[in-house]
Structures are given as structure tokens and as C-alpha cells.
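tl;dr need the bound structure. longer version: we got a ligand (zinc ion) that a collaborator sent over and nobodys looked at where it sits. i said id run it. heres the input, straight from their email, havent touched it
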Amino acid sequence: MNFQKPLSGRITSRFGPRKHPVSGKVGSFHNGIDISAPTGTDIVAPDSGRISEVWTHEKGGKCMAMIGRTGIRFGFAHLDQQLKKVGDIVNMGDVIAKCGNTGVSTGSHLHFTVKQNGNWVNPETYFKF
Ligand SMILES: [Zn+2]
């Protein structure tokens, strides 16, 4: 399956166990990757599919998720703007959000997650940044 990168940028935190950048707590699990990019950078749909969730979270800030063609769920957090609504159909490459610094965050970046069959998967399995 071919996916499109949600945005271009540098990975500042990888998937897996880590020391939390804000709380300093050791042993927390990073369920995605962080990609550094300026606030307002376009975030595009990595696959064609449907917007499944749009929400705001104390830590994650403005968040969105979509379900792609194979049922993989892609999640996006710390957004500056959420440009789609739940149920919207999107094509791969459509702009769905803007990168930001909302929630508990140390700078503008995208927290990007991939969930497959109910499990968090390393996004770098599918994407090269
Ligand atoms: Zn993160």
C-alpha cells in the first residue's frame, strides 16, 4: 500500500518508550512520532478515506483521526486548525489540518500515530520522513 507523508519535516521524537519531553517522566510510551514543522504547515491525508474523529484533548490539543482504505487509523495531534468534520470523505493528499502547537507541546510539531488492528504501530513502518 502506498501512503503519502502527512507533511514534510524532521522527526524530533520516535516511536516507543521514552522520557517524556514535558513531564520528564521516564517509562512513558510514545505511541507515535513527532515531526517538527512551522505552525500553519499543511497536513495532508496520508490515504483516501474518512475522517473518523475530531476532538480537543488537554495534552494532545486539537486532534483529528481518519480511517484509510485498509482500515488503518491515522491520528494527528497538536493541530493549529482542524479543517474537516467527522464523516468527511477525503482523498489522499487533501489538506485536512494545519500543524500547530496546541495542548502540552514544546514547539510546533505534528504528533502522528498509526493504529492497525487495535495496536499502535510505528509510523516509520509505512512512512519515510
Ligand atoms: Zn508525540
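gonna send this back to them w/ a short note. The pocket of zinc ion is lined by residues 13, 30, 32, 34, 111 (CB under 6 Å).
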